[in-house]
Structures are given as C-alpha cells and as structure tokens.
Amino acid sequence: MKIQLIRNDGCHIWETAEKVLKEVLSEAGLPADYEIVVVEDDEKAKEYRFFGSPQILIDGKDIDPLASKVSDYHFQGCRFYLWPPAERASGSERKMYEHPPKAMILQVLQSTQQNKLTEREKVG
Predict the structure, then answer these.
(1) Buried b (16+ CB within 10 A) or exposed e, 76-106
(2) Beta bridge partners of 61
(3) Residue 88 has what pLDDT?
(4) Which of the 8 DSSP states describes residue 69?
C-alpha cells in the first residue's frame, strides 16, 4: 500500500495531518511508511489532483470522497474536509475539519486492505 501526504509550503496544517496519520497507522498495526510530497506549482498540483493542503493519497487515490467532484487544481491554499459523508449523516452530524479526520483515514485504510485481500483471494 502506497501512502502519500501531499502538502504545500503555505499551509502548515499538514503537520497535524501527519500526526493523525501516524496515530491511525499505529492503531491499525501498520508501519508508519509514507511519503511526503511538496507541491510547488500548478503543474505538480494537476499531477496529484491537488487543490489544497493537506491531502492524503492511498494507492494514488484521494481519501476524501468529495475529491472526485473537484477539477480546479492549484498548489496554493489550505483545504477543508467534511465528515462523515452526506449519505451516512444528517447535516448536523457533519463537521468541517482542517485536515483529514481520523475516521476518514481509518475507513479508507481498512477498505484498501480489504480490497487487496479480495484481489489476492481471486488470484490465489
């Protein structure tokens, strides 16, 4: 599993996101094995589909369910996250976060691990 923490130089919330990521990996019994990528221009922002810092990719996919709706990629600025997803919560239950919340990261990690197990079972 490839995990990337994508950030820019203008938003320092990535440091909090990194702490949360380390906690989640530890609690999941996974090694704290991830790459930090600094986005410095709009070209690199397009490459990573980056629209604000911080961003976490797992196997190249943004962990935020709303990210697929964005097409304006840019290297500057901070980003906000809404959690839980609208289909699982009423408006009053959803909260805004300055970094990916722990539950979001954990859900995507677990889903990715399950998908990999399912793929291995099909092959093996």
Answers:
(1) eebbebbbbeeeeeeeeeeeebbbbbeebbb
(2) 58
(3) 74
(4) G
pLDDT at 123 exceeding the cut of 90: no
What's residue 12's pLDDT? 95
Domain extent listing, the chain = 3-123
CA dist 68 and 94 (Å) reads: 19
User: How much is the average pLDDT of 69-89?
Assistant: 90
Q: Can you tell me the distance from the alpha carbon of 123 to that of 44, in angstroms, rounded to the nearest whole number?
A: 35
Residue type, position 92, single letter:
S
DSSP secondary structure code for residue 41 in this structure: S
pTM (predicted TM-score): 0.90
H-helix segments, 28-94:
42-48
Q: What are phi and psi of 15, to 5 degrees?
A: -65, -40
Taking a C-beta distance cutoff of 8 angstroms, is the pair 84, 65 a contact? Answer: no
